[in-house]
Amino acid sequence: MMKTFAELGFLGLLIAVEGLDGSGKSTQIYLLKRWLELRGLKVFFSEWNSSELVKSATSKGKKMTLLTPTTFSLIHATDFADRYERQLVPLLRAGCLVLCDRFFFTAFALPPIRGF
């Protein structure tokens, strides 16, 4: 059975927003972030494919149409693992509220959509 964030010693809270591209996820998260910050909360925003480790590789691969479904999946897994370990876990342990524009659920949904 999976442990909750509290059982892992995380003092913060993570809110993930999933949805189709262009559905308004980023807009809603931005509005929520501003509202929470105005109330004095420590808020961090994280978005899909934002890891510095893979961001440029993803952009170049998309532009040059070099990425296969397998490569996309591996890049997304690397992106998530890097952001989780370097950003999300330390922030959650410190008690921050983390807002995510997509989380690991997206990694499960994208490959079948792309025909893999």
Q: What is the structural class?
A: alpha/beta
**How many DSSP H or I helices?**
4
**Gap between N and C termini:** 28 Å
Please give the number of β-strands.
3
Order of helices and strands: EHEHHEH
Please name the CATH topology: Rossmann fold
Description:
This protein is α/β, with parallel strands linked by helices and 116 residues long. The protein has a single domain, classed as P-loop containing nucleotide triphosphate hydrolases (Rossmann fold, 3-Layer(aba) Sandwich). Helix content is 49%, strand content 13%. It contains four helices and three strands; from the N terminus they run βαβααβα. It has a three-stranded parallel sheet, sandwiched between helices. The protein is globular and about 45 Å long. The chain starts with 12 loop residues before the first strand and ends with a helix.
